[in-house]
Write a structure and sequence with these properties.
419 residues, alpha+beta, Heat Shock Protein 90, 2 domains, five-stranded mixed beta sheet, 9% strand, elongated
């Protein structure tokens, strides 16, 4: 194969690798500066294929890719290695699938430029679909957790696809003769391992749910017990109310005293509206957050309804935690945060409002960028980019705006909607 042909086919591989890597790292855009590693790696890998055998050039390209990602994305060696492992798994699986339509088009598979160009074009199209729509970034997230089984499975799949690739290099004729069998068996094994990984993801979600239940159910149970104890004093309060008309002759005074007593009695049971929520985990979480805010001399006023959100409990709690933590962080002592859960025009809505200075449009747009923070240098934000990821997962929408109805105090309003 001519050198310029190698350059073209290698370019497809490198672009695919960069795209998948950015997807795994949850980097949303492809920047012009990304062309620098693409061009450098393309020429190095393509040149290597004309100097050393393909199987050794593969090892060289692996080293180059790992080092490039380590430097370019500022990763650790382990992170860069796992990024390479997952990216290669995805790309080789896609290329194995792309071989089938190429075989149907040409009636055979040849290691020549035209069939290679067709296969690479189909593969790159599949990579773009993966980059745009598939949540493969969850695989890379798992590598950052203490889950040895997932890491072993990923390495298992990696070894499998590398063996297939090396067999292609060493015995391409035998591979071509049995291409359907090789592709079918390889994909079957990858799918089986994928099912196991999928179960691992599901188990991780269940563990998060369990943590939420363990943390917040005792809180709401304590609140319930406290209210039950107070109910024992109900008869005494009734007797006190009955005695008020006997103590005062003036009807206006009686009304005033009764209103005052009832108001004090009503305020005595704090946050009792939380017990009316169907989701007791939510009630326990909110009670904890209200107490945390109270310790900072910040109040949270709420208007809650039993809206059903299509979220896992731990995701719902995570969204509320991010929004409330940000709102409380932005408040001064003595100020108030407003929380509302309601349904409007068919959309379940979470609304959080906090007083602050007017925020410019540029800053509002930057709120959900990964790593962005309005805090002092060295301090991290509370994860609005994570909130954005959860909302996108369920095809929801986020609106952030300044609001100044009374033209006295500006508020920042966060609206999170789910259909």
């Amino acid at each position: 194969m001519a050198y310029h042909e190698s350059i073209i086919l290698t370019l497809f591989d490198i672009v695919s690798y960069i795209l998948i890597s950015k997807k795994l790292l949850e980097i949303k855009k492809f920047y012009w500066k990304d062309l620098v590693p693409v061009v450098i790696l393309t020429f190095l890998v393509a040149s290597g294929s004309h100097i050393i055998p393909d199987q050794y050039n593969f090892l060289l390209s692996a080293i180059l890719l790992i080092i490039t990602m380590l430097i370019y994305f500022k990763l650790t060696l382990f992170q860069s290695f796992m990024l390479y492992v997952i990216s290669v798994i995805i790309i080789i699986v896609i290329q194995l699938i792309a071989i089938l339509p190429t075989y149907l088009i040409f009636g055979r598979i040849e290691a020549t430029f035209i069939p290679g160009l067709v296969a690479q074009s189909i593969g790159l199209a599949a990579v773009l679909v993966c980059y745009r729509f598939l949540p493969v970034h969850l695989l890379y997230r798992l590598t950052g957790k203490k889950n040895k089984i997932i890491k072993i499975l990923l390495l298992n799949i990696f070894v499998l696809v590398i063996c297939v690739l090396f067999y292609w290099y060493l015995n391409i004729e035998g591979m071509i003769e049995n291409i359907i069998t090789f592709v079918s068996v390889s994909l079957l094994l990858v799918i089986l391992n994928g099912v196991i990984i999928s179960n691992g993801l599901r188990n991780e979600q269940e563990e998060k749910e369990l943590i939420i239940y363990k943390k917040y159910m005792p809180v709401i149970e304590n609140l319930t017990d406290d209210i039950r104890k107070r109910q024992h004093d109900f008869s005494n309060h009734v007797q006190a109310i009955k005695a008020i008309p006997l103590l005062y002759d003036d009807i206006n005074t009686v009304r005033e005293k009764m209103d005052l007593y009832c108001a004090e009695l009503n305020d005595d049971i704090e946050n009792k509206e939380l017990l009316l929520l169907d989701n007791k985990i939510l009630a326990g979480f909110l009670f904890s957050k209200f107490q945390e805010a109270k310790e900072k001399d910040i109040s949270i006023r709420y208007n809650l309804s039993n809206v059903k959100f299509k979220l896992m409990d731990f995701e719902f709690i995570e969204i509320l935690s991010i929004l409330l933590d940000n709102a409380v962080e932005a408040c001064e002592s003595g100020e108030e945060v407003q929380l509302s859960l309601y349904c409007k025009m068919g959309f379940g809505t979470i609304e959080v409002v906090n007083p602050t200075e007017p925020v410019g449009m540029d800053e509002l747009d930057n709120f959900f960028k990964k790593g962005y923070s309005t805090k002092a240098p060295g301090k991290r934000g509370y994860g609005l980019s994570r909130l954005s990821d959860i909302v996108k997962k369920y095809n929801g929408e986020i609106e952030v705006k300044n609001e100044n109805k009374e033209k006295q105090q500006n508020n920042v309003v966060f609206l999170v909607r789910f259909s």
